[in-house]
């Protein structure tokens, strides 16, 4: 059964898949919970896993100014979602799938949706 997995304004993918860790079609019932991030795909070299970079600003207390930082998160990529390096995606937290992967890709978005 395909639904929007509890995230508002999310369209399920049109393509079917047999990935057990897919939140839409999976047999292991990966439930999404926790934090929702948007970021740019910087690496697709791992099998079924991508690396998403998120740029953000932080307040430097010592110098009383803003600084820029970047954080990288490994996320599981279901077979029904097609992405490549440079695309923007929406990822959400789930239970740990492996040692470094505790997020899953929900959909591909445009650059304007990041802001």
Report what the structure shows.
With about 120 residues, the chain is an all-beta fold. The chain has a domain at about 35-115: Beta Barrel (OB fold (Dihydrolipoamide Acetyltransferase, E2P)). Helices cover about 0% and strands about 40% of the residues. It contains no helices and five strands. The protein has a five-stranded antiparallel sheet, with no helix packed on it. Strand 1 and strand 2 form a beta hairpin. It is elongated. The chain starts with about 35 loop residues before the first strand and ends in a 6-residue tail after the last strand. The relative contact order is 0.26. The model has no long low-confidence stretch (mean pLDDT about 90).
How are the elements arranged and paired?
Layout: E1 36-43, E2 49-60, E3 65-76, E4 88-93, E5 103-109
Q: In a few lines, what is going on in this structure?
A:
This protein has 115 residues and is mostly beta strands.
Number of helices: 0
Outline: elongated
Structural classification = mainly beta
Percentage of residues in strands: 35-45%
Straight-line N-to-C gap = 32 Å
| Count of β-strands | 5
Cα radius of gyration in angstroms: 15 Å
Profile the largest sheet.
5 strands, antiparallel
């Amino acid at each position: 059964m395909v639904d929007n997995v509890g995230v508002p304004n999310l369209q399920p993918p049109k393509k079917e898949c047999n990935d057990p860790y897919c939140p839409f079609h999976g047999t292991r019932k990966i439930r999404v919970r926790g934090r929702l991030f948007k970021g740019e795909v910087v690496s697709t070299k791992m099998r079924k896993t991508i690396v998403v970079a998120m740029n953000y600003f932080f307040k430097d207390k010592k110098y009383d100014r803003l600084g820029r930082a970047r954080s990288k998160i490994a996320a599981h990529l279901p077979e029904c979602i097609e992405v490549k390096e440079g695309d923007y995606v929406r990822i959400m937290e789930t239970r740990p799938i492996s040692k470094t992967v505790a997020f899953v890709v929900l959909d591909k978005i445009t650059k304007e949706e990041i802001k």
